[in-house]
TrEMBL record:
It comes from the Eukaryota. It comes from Didymosphaeria variabile. It is a multi-pass membrane protein. It is found in: Membrane. InterPro entries: PER33/POM33_regulator, TMEM33/Pom33. Belongs to the PER33/POM33 family. Signal peptide: none annotated. Its main location: membrane. GO terms for biological process: endoplasmic reticulum tubular network organization; membrane organization. This is Transmembrane nucleoporin. Coiled coil: none annotated. Keywords: Membrane, Transmembrane, Transmembrane helix. The chain crosses the membrane at residues 14-33, 84-109.
Length: 159
């Protein structure tokens, strides 16, 4: 993730690229505050044994927030990363400056994310299901089905 941040820093600016980092940052800051800052600001009571965790209301609220919204937020990040790939791909199709290098680097990054993240895998599965539903729709032009079917076979083959 750090390497992609550097690439986005030195490449042409795409505001959409900031959104996944913003979501990650919310959870990193919340977790850091809960695990490092709050114990420093609100030390355990004087009678507490060393090594035992005492929780405050704020710590519990942060923990509840992280637990409740983490999965949904990571799914949102996965969808944003997919949308960003299509955005970069569109730039490459229009031959914008530096876009071909960016699409290669981002594709490598995205393949690594797909291999490591169940959220990205789930988002791809959901996207594939939506495409299948559109192809099964009677109003889809007959010429679209073979082309999208070929892309889906290519994806399933791992290419």
């Amino acid at each position: 993730m750090c390497i992609m941040a550097l690439i986005w820093l030195f490449s042409r600016q795409i505001p959409m690229a900031v959104l996944p980092f913003a979501v990650y940052s919310v959870f990193h800051v919340a977790t850091y505050v809960r695990s490092n800052l709050l114990p420093t600001i609100q030390p355990p009571p004087a009678g507490a044994q060393p090594g035992t965790k005492s929780s405050s209301g704020l710590s519990d609220a942060i923990g509840k927030f992280v637990k409740e919204y983490y999965d949904g937020s990571m799914t949102l990040v996965a969808i944003l990363e997919i949308a960003l790939w299509f955005r970069v791909f569109g730039s490459a199709l229009l031959f914008q400056k530096g876009s071909w290098i960016l699409i290669v680097v981002y594709t490598v990054f995205f393949r690594a994310r797909y291999a490591q993240s169940t959220f990205v895998q789930g988002a791809i599965t959901q996207l594939t299901a939506r495409i299948d539903a559109q192809l099964a729709n009677q109003s889809t032009p007959p010429g679209c089905s073979p082309g999208l079917g070929h892309l889906q076979e290519h994806h399933q083959a791992g290419g």
